[in-house]
Here is the input.
Amino acid sequence: MLMIPCPDCGPRDETEFGYGGQAHVAYPEDPNQLSDREWGEYLFYRENTRGLFAERWVHTAGCRRWFNALRDTVTYEFKAVYRPGEARPDLTQGES
Here is the structure.
């Protein structure tokens, strides 16, 4: 069972959460100006990174708040969680 660290409620069982896709995908400034191809790319094309990946999660069975997480897609380990609007944590600090 995967434990997900909610920034407001602490570690909880994965069944309490919903996955929201890739984090830090900006909504187009003027979506009416996008071609069908550009709109399709915004809606459906996301990175598929092996290793550290920024994701959005919602604690549906708890505080019901959205948050971002840095998760290793190989090991499934959550490396950091942070609230929307906060900067993505730099996990390289402290490494030699």
About this structure: The longest strand covers residues 52-58. Residues 36-44 form the longest helix (9 residues).
